[in-house]
Amino acid sequence: MLAQGLGGLPSGFLLLLYLIGAVAALGLFAICWALVKRHPYAGSALLIGLCVLVAYLLGTHYLGRSKLLALVDGDQAIRLKSLEIAGQRRRVICTDEDVLRYFEARVRGPSIGGPSGTSYHITFRFAGGGVYTSQAFLRGDKVEIWVDWGPDTERDPPTHAFHFSEPMPRHVATLLQLLNSDNNDAPGTVLTIEGGLATTAYDASLALR
User: Fold this and answer.
1) 11: which DSSP letter?
2) Disulfide engineering: 188 pairs with which of 13, 32, 106, 207, CB 3.0-4.6 Å?
3) Is the distance from CB of 144 to CB of 114 less than 8 angstroms?
4) 198-205 LR contacts (CB < 8 Å, sep 24+)
């Protein structure tokens, strides 16, 4: 089920982002190396700090990836710490325990087919560490996700699909109503779900996208 989404090349847009990141990292390393030659102690400290930061970010990414793969394969021990869904000039931030447990159960469920829909990005943050962002399509109560950035999302099918079935926490319906609405409806809306409450705020930077 998941093999088809692993090991391929990223889409053109993601590949461009990776290349920009690689060039930026090389530039930072070059600057640090120049500082090492002029100011050995300060330059060395900065270079070590940069290496630690890069290692931390890569470790967090791959830990998140491995946990998401385990979750979609049914691992009952995997727990979400938070979810963020962004796109279409809106954002959802969720730390509510009931919604997170419901979302885990849906992702663990059997993979189902379904048409593509509105494009979003889902960021999964896991208890115990690990962060992973996946492209997703939402249509009605059906969600399709790529469990790996590997596939070319313009051509390859999603690696996993699931649906939000009843019974569901009431704030899941609130979430779906916002994400399924037209992107011209209430642009800039930020929906936060935590502690059993759902609140909305306005982010001008989202509205301008």
Assistant:
1) P
2) 207
3) yes
4) 198/171, 198/174, 203/91
